[in-house]
Structure formats: structure tokens, C-alpha cells
Amino acid sequence: MGKVSALICSGLVAAITALATPVLAGDDQITGVWMGTMRQIYTDGEDKYPMTLNILGMTGDTDYPTYKCSGLLRRLDIHDGQTIYAETITRGRYGPDNKDGCVDGFIVVKRGGETLGLAWAGVFNGNPITATAVLSKGLSTSQ
Q1: What CATH number does the domain containing 19 carry?
Q2: Would residue 18 count as lying in a domain?
Q3: Residue 143 falls within a domain, yes or no?
Q4: Based on the number of CB atoms within 10 Å of its own CB, is 13 exposed (0-12), middle (13-18) or buried (19 or more)?
Q5: What's the pLDDT tens digit per position in 123-136?
Q6: Are 15 and 32 in contact (CB under 8 A)?
Q7: Backbone phi, psi, residue 66, to 5°
Q8: Helix H segments across 20-105?
Q9: Are 77 and 87 in contact (CB under 8 A)?
């Protein structure tokens, strides 16, 4: 892991620790649909928007209705009750034809009582972007 990756991961761990209290690790603690408001930080400002996270153990999906984006999650690791996922945008990806699209990133989640702390990190045009949220259990929208 490079110095920048280690620094980003350290920041995500700190953000999750601040958002959630420790609980027992395990898929059953975080499996399900979670909803809330993301707070995304840019180099020149910030944005707030709703998101839905559906965790299915090793995989999951995300939905960002404001940006008409969604993605698939692939679990990378579980460490100290924190679960790390790689997010690949599958709908609404940023590109030449979609300047309002979303970019791939990494998500770290940790359960804290009735909420799920979430930290997201990615890179856009060489600039780091971070976002955090405290999510609440929602109703399933999967079929």
C-alpha cells in the first residue's frame, strides 16, 4: 500500500471511529438497507445528498438519486469491526458525455448501535474527494 493509500485509509478509519461506537463484527450486524444523507467534501466546497446502501455480505449496491448514479460493492476486508468495500459505478458514471456523473471509490462502514457510520473516498481529476454519512436502517427496495 502506498503512502497516499495508507493516509486515505487512516483518515477513513478515523472518520468511522468518530461516527460509530464499537460493536461485534460480522455481516449480520450490517446486512440490509441503510439510508441517509452524504456530506461530500471537495477542494472548493461541499455537497449534501441522499444515498441508499444495500449490504448483502460480500457484495452490495449503492444508489445516489440526486446524481442518478448507482454502483456495486465488493468487500475487500473486515478489520476491527470495520468493513471495507470497493465501489464500482454502474449507472451514471462520470465521463465525456456525463459531466454530472459519479466516480468509483472505497467505502468503509461500521455499525454503532442503531446507525451505520460510512466514510467514502475517491479521486476526481487528480483531486481527493471524501464523503461521510450516518445511515439508518431502511426498508428494502430490492426484489
Answers
A1: 2.40.128
A2: yes
A3: no
A4: middle
A5: 988 988 999 999 99
A6: no
A7: -60, -40
A8: 27-30
A9: no
